[in-house]
Write a structure and sequence with these properties.
Length: 316
Amino acid sequence: MSTPFPLFPTSASSVSGEVDLLYLFIVAVCAFFTVLVAALVVYFALRYRRRHPDEVGADIHGSLSLELAWTFIPFVLSMVMFGWGATLFFKLATPPANAMEIFVVGKQWMWKIQHPEGVREINELHVPLGRPVRLTLGSEDVIHDFSIPAFRVKMDVVPGKVTTMWFEATQLGTFHIFCAEYCGTKHSGMTGQVIVMTPQDYEAWLAGGRSTGTAAQNGERLFSDLACITCHKTDSSGRGPSLLGVFGSRVALMDGRTVIADENYLRESIMNSQAKVVQGYQGIMPAFQGMVTEENLMQLIAYIRTLKPAAPEVKK
Ligand code: CUA
């Protein structure tokens, strides 16, 4: 990938241009004031230097207009940086609703990736051009950080929680993936490639991949293998709450709190089942910490997310 300015990574996503613009704006403002202040220091040192040993400087008591100017101008400039940065941050933090979802698990020292159709790969991420992709990230051991410089996106991959990031590739080609958080001996080798393909090529690539079922299908199999299904029945007769429609819903807990059942709630409820017991149930579920891998966990979550409430929902 050659660029006219090789110190800078290629700009290949829907947000990378705007990230660069903000970055250049901040650099330009800083450079301007650095040069201005440095030049004035030199100029004033020469212009107002002491010429005779008995010379005494003029007594200055301040200038209101000067003080207002050097307060107001930096205030406006820093507010522009803040407003612009915050807008961009929210854009980066909010995946579009139509994004396709890919699961990524980091471990010392590789990236394991599973596509929605079930195809898996290691240290390579094939994505279609011009389509928003949402990554759901988990770690099996320590903190990693999934970074794609050409897309100007990165996100911490943290053990014990699920994080998300998204991007939309706007250029065909192969781009670096780096781990951007020191994670042990081979941290610097924890790299990979994003391969951006046309949608047709991507479909062809998917079709050629070996799939062991979609993430949700894998999750469904685990749901029965781990015997979750014996307590979490689809009606209210089970010893655990029904999981139909649970994802994204409000859940009342035994201790009176209410939480939103998002990925992190589901994750915690599987790994450390006593942390947030649902109201009306006994905390009899075993903790699955150490029994399921991070990939299994993502598959279980993918499955639970597909469990839609039964058609005519009866409100209790
Ligand atoms: Cu993983 Cu550094």
